[in-house]
Each structure stands twice: as structure tokens, then as C-alpha cells.
Amino acid sequence: MIIEVKDLVKRYKDFLAIDHLSLTIKEGEIFGLLGPNGAGKTTLTNTILGLTAIDQGTITVFGKELRKHEREIKEDIGLVPQDIAVYDELTAYENIRLFGKLFGLRGEALKNGIDDALEFTGLTHLKNKKPSQFSGGMKRRLNIACAIVHKPKLIIMDEPTVGIDPQSRNYILESVKKLNQLDCTVIYISHYMEEVAAICSQIAIVDKGRIIAKGTKEELSRLIVDDQVISVDVEAPDYTIIERLKNLHGVKDASIDGQTVRIVLNELKLNTVLSTFLEEGSTITKVATNTPTLEDVFLTLTGRALREGSR
Ligand SMILES: Nc1ncnc2c1ncn2[C@@H]1O[C@H](COP(=O)(O)OP(=O)(O)OP(=O)(O)O)[C@@H](O)[C@H]1O
Question: 222, 252, 277 — which closes off a domain?
């Protein structure tokens, strides 16, 4: 395990921000922390970084207890904070160098680290420019370059795509995947479920300082439904097809709504279903499967929508 959090409690005065939370993260994951604004995601990662004092519980990072080994643990972590933290009066190169030096890099190691970070974030051609001339997306990329200059084993990204253009957003999501392929474990904080669903190998849904569900995207979806729904549009559906479909193994229900035949399956056997239509001589015009999204999972577990605001 790269991270083990046990029974963590964090209060801001009377407000319980982290509520007896336990969590393990395996090495090599892109681990998504998904939850609405104010759920406690940043507070949780700040405690893992040793930036926020805790009231109760234990945190172990890289197999070492944070309280006792804070300094050495921090050397192997990179943080991309929610708010862009670069110096406008320094060039991109100088910004990354500053962070490299803070992490103790010197000489060749520092130079190589800066060059690799610039190349990784696609900023090499802009290395002598100052961030004041950058777009929001470029600044975010510079923020990432500063966080990876020391080649950390773990990187924490706190909502790195908020308020940027779609092109930079895709660039960042791709670079998260590339970083992960380079053996970096990533904690990716977001309240955009589509991003988390697209890149994360494990997802924890956080709400009111607690983890209310954890698993792969598929496992989380299965938490709320075992059934799959397939809608098949055909030119002239009739009730003989419904009877045949209902007799198939794994089909729980079949019904007609206009030109659409709706089939509820507890085992996904799309082939058998579609062959049945073809054997009946039906002309299929459209097929759609409906799998629950993470938004549906959150809604079902909490009764509230995940997104309060929109991008
Ligand atoms: N320094 C602080 N003092 C008092 N309350 C705080 C402090 N920092 C955070 N909180 C409160 O703790 C709760 C959790 O905040 P946190 O920033 O961890 O949430 P989050 O899930 O990261 O949300 P967001 O997506 O908005 O960043 C919020 O209600 C917030 O107002």
C-alpha cells in the first residue's frame, strides 16, 4: 500500500471536516477522489501531505508513519494545488528550477529534472517566457511541471482542470495517464465525474468527510444496479418478439414502447438478444445500452446531485 489512512478525524473548530475516515491506496493506481464542493477532499489530501494537523487517526505513506517520517515522505510527493502557485515574475524555467531546488535537487539532477518536466508538459518552447503571458491552461501545465521536477513516486492533483479550455484539459488528462505509466501513483481530486470515470483505476466517493463508496467505475455502478437495460428500435415491433425475448435466459423483462423494445437483463447477452430480433425478421434501426453513471451512484447513495455548479 502506498497510503493507509485509519480512523482519521479532522475538525475545524466545531465543524467535522473528516469524519472517522479510513482509506488504502495501492501503488500504481490513478486514484480518484470524487465528491461535491466542501466534501473534504482537499482536507484529506492536505492531511496526507502533513499540511493540516489531525485530531485523531493514523496516516502511513510509503509504509512509514507520517508523524515520524514527514520530511522524507514529502520528498517523494508532488502536489498540483487547486490554485495555481507559480511566480509571475520568474520565467517558466526559473519557476521549475525554484521548485527543484526546494526539493533538494542540484547540478545535473536539477537540470535534467527541469528539462524533463518542461518536455513532459509541452512547455519547452516557452521556457524563457513568464507565466503572465500564459493562458490558464499553460499556467496549469507549468504548475504540473513544478510538481514533477523531482520525479515523485506519488503525485496529488487537486482539480487541475478547473477553468481551462478543452484542449489543455485533454492535455492534462493525457499527462496524468502518461505519468502513471512512468510508475507514478496519482491521486486525482475532482468533482467532474466524467474525468474521474475516464482516467481513474479506483474511485472513492467522498461526502461530508466520509468515504461513502469505493471501487472501480464498474464496481461502483454495480452497487446500485445489477441489471442492464437495452433499448432496441425496430421498424415494426410485435408481441411475438416480446414473448421470445422473455423466454431467454437472463432476460428479466421485455416491453414495447412505440418502435422501441426495452429489455431488462440481469446478465448481459447482447448477442442472443440481437439474434432473436434477426431470426424474427425484424429490421433493427438503433441499439442503446444504459449503464448507470457515477452521477447515478452518488445520487442513489446520497439523494443529492454530485455537481452543484457547472464548468
Ligand atoms: N481552514 C479551514 N477553516 C475552516 N473550515 C475549513 C477550512 N478548510 C476547509 N474548511 C471546510 O471544510 C470542509 C471541507 O473542505 P475541503 O476544501 O476539504 O472540501 P473539498 O471537497 O476539497 O471541496 P472543493 O471541491 O470545494 O475544494 C468545507 O466545508 C470547508 O468550508
Answer: 222
